[in-house]
């Protein structure tokens, strides 16, 4: 039987399988964490880049655009000044706006290309020159107006002509200043648009990184669920089910052949099943041996008195239930004591075994031959009436009488038996049934032995 082979070293162990599984799970978790960490670092780098370069440039461009509008508004008031006080007030506002414009330009210069920086700087210088010239023209215009007021009628034509020239120059210079402001505004708008584009690109990158993080988190969740399900399958298939099979095998006292691997044990549980199967097989053999010792006679190997009465109770119950005949033969070896006294107990044992063999060769498969005690045997005959039982008893008597018994030392002896036959009555107990067969033996001995006597 395959279960009795010695357990070999398992090819793989459950611990090794779970170690491989745990390593795989750890590798997946580390890889996902590393990917998430890399994405987080990249997103933070993008945010820092946005805060360090793009946002300041974008804010500086917006501030530069606002300062250009302020300078334009203040410069447009220069030709409208009517007195030197008003002119100097407007000029101070223009200078303040220009200072703010220059500060904004210097703040935005690091984010500009060299070409844009040179163009804006040149335009700012031209605006400064135009503002200075507009101020000079306004001073001259105000001075001419003062002369006209202090000396009316004197050189009116000359003053009027000069003032018209100044007014035309102021208009031309005002248009020039407007053109310069438009040029500056267009440059600033381009810079602002470029900064806006960079800002949008950075936002898009950060959004994609966040989306990728979300996807990785979803993938991580799915992988974790799959890994946990695989772990459950691993535990269920390689541990729980097999432990249940092991428990069931221990409870049933046998290991199903399909549970034992044909090759070397795969792991510790396989080795345990092999050892358990071998142990259960040894226990079964021992139990069978114990059962044989408990139910058979060690000398003749036939059933003993205990086994006889267990079978007798069953057969009596069956005969009563189904109203079937049941007979018994009580067999006693004649003059057995002289054999022991003459040739010793070993010779008596040989005679007992020989007689038992002759009787066993005569009974049917459904009958039971048992050693009743000493030199007495009982044959239990189910489905047998008194006539057939008597006939079988006579056959046994004649065969024993014909057999030459070897008593040892080259000596032989002729042995005969006395047989009592009884058939079960309807309301008779098992003890009374055997007792009637025993009484029939005594009557046979009283008739001279070596005969069959049936109980009435």
From TrEMBL:
- Name the Gene Ontology molecular function terms of this record: diguanylate cyclase activity
**EC class of the enzyme, as a word:** transferase
Reactions accelerated catalytically: 2 GTP = 3',3'-c-di-GMP + 2 diphosphate
Q: Which InterPro entries match?
A: Diguanylate_Cyclase, GGDEF_dom, Nucleotide_cyclase, Rev_trsase/Diguanyl_cyclase, TAT_signal
Check the record and name the CDD domains matching this protein.
GGDEF
Transmembrane segments in this chain: where? 212-232
GO cellular component: a single term: plasma membrane
Q: Where is the GGDEF domain?
A: 324-456
Query: What's the EC number here?
Result: 2.7.7.65
The record's annotation in Gene3D superfamilies points to: 3.30.70.270
| Superkingdom to which the source organism belongs | Bacteria
Q: Which SUPFAM superfamilies match?
A: Nucleotide cyclase
Concerning Pfam families, the annotation shows: GGDEF (PF00990)
Coiled-coil ranges per UniProt: 266-296
Please list the GO biological process terms of this entry: cell adhesion involved in single-species biofilm formation; negative regulation of bacterial-type flagellum-dependent cell motility
Q: Which UniProt keywords apply?
A: Coiled coil, Membrane, Transmembrane, Transmembrane helix
What is the recorded name of this protein? diguanylate cyclase
Organism for this UniProt entry = Pseudothauera lacus
């Amino acid at each position: 039987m395959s279960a009795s082979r010695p357990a070999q070293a398992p090819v793989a162990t459950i611990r090794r399988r779970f170690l491989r599984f745990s390593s795989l799970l750890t590798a997946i978790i580390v890889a996902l964490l590393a990917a998430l960490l890399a994405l987080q670092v990249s997103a933070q780098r993008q945010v820092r880049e946005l805060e360090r370069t793009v946002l300041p440039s974008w804010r500086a461009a917006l501030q530069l655009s606002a300062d250009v509008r302020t300078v334009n508004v203040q410069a447009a008031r220069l030709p409208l000044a009517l007195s030197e006080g008003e002119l100097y007030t407007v000029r101070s506002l223009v200078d303040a706006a220009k200072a703010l414009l220059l500060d904004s330009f210097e703040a935005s210069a690091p984010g500009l290309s060299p070409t844009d920086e040179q163009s804006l700087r040149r335009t700012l210088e031209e605006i400064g020159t135009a503002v200075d010239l507009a101020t000079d023209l306004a001073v001259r215009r105000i001075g001419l107006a003062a002369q006209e007021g202090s000396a009316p009628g004197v050189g009116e034509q000359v003053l009027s002509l000069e003032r018209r020239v100044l007014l035309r120059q102021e208009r031309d210079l005002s248009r020039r200043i407007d053109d310069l402001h438009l040029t500056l505004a267009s440059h600033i708008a381009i810079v602002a648009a470029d900064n806006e584009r960079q800002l949008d690109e950075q936002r898009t990158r950060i959004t994609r990184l966040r989306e990728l993080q979300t996807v990785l988190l979803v993938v991580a969740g799915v992988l974790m669920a799959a890994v946990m399900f695989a772990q459950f399958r691993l535990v269920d298939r390689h541990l729980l089910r097999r432990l249940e099979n092991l428990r069931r095998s221990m409870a049933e006292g046998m290991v199903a052949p399909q549970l034992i691997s044909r090759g070397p044990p795969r792991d510790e549980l396989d080795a345990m099943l092999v050892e358990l199967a071998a142990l259960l097989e040894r226990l079964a053999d021992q139990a069978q041996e114990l059962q044989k010792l408990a139910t058979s006679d060690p000398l003749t190997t036939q059933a003993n008195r205990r086994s006889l009465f267990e079978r007798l109770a069953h057969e009596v119950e069956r005969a009563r239930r189904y109203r079937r005949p049941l007979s018994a033969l009580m067999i006693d070896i004649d003059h057995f004591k002289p054999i022991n006294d003459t040739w010793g107990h070993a010779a008596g044992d040989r005679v007992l075994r020989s007689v038992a063999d002759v009787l066993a060769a005569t009974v049917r498969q459904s009958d039971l031959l048992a050693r009743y005690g000493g030199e007495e045997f009982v044959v239990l005959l189910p489905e047998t009436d008194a006539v057939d039982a008597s006939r079988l008893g006579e056959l046994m008597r004649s065969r024993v009488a014909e057999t030459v018994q070897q008593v040892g030392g080259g000596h032989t002896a002729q042995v005969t038996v006395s047989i009592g036959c009884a058939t079960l009555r309807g309301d008779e107990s098992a003890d009374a049934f055997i007792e009637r067969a025993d009484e029939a033996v005594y009557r046979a001995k009283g008739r001279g032995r070596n005969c069959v006597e049936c109980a009435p």
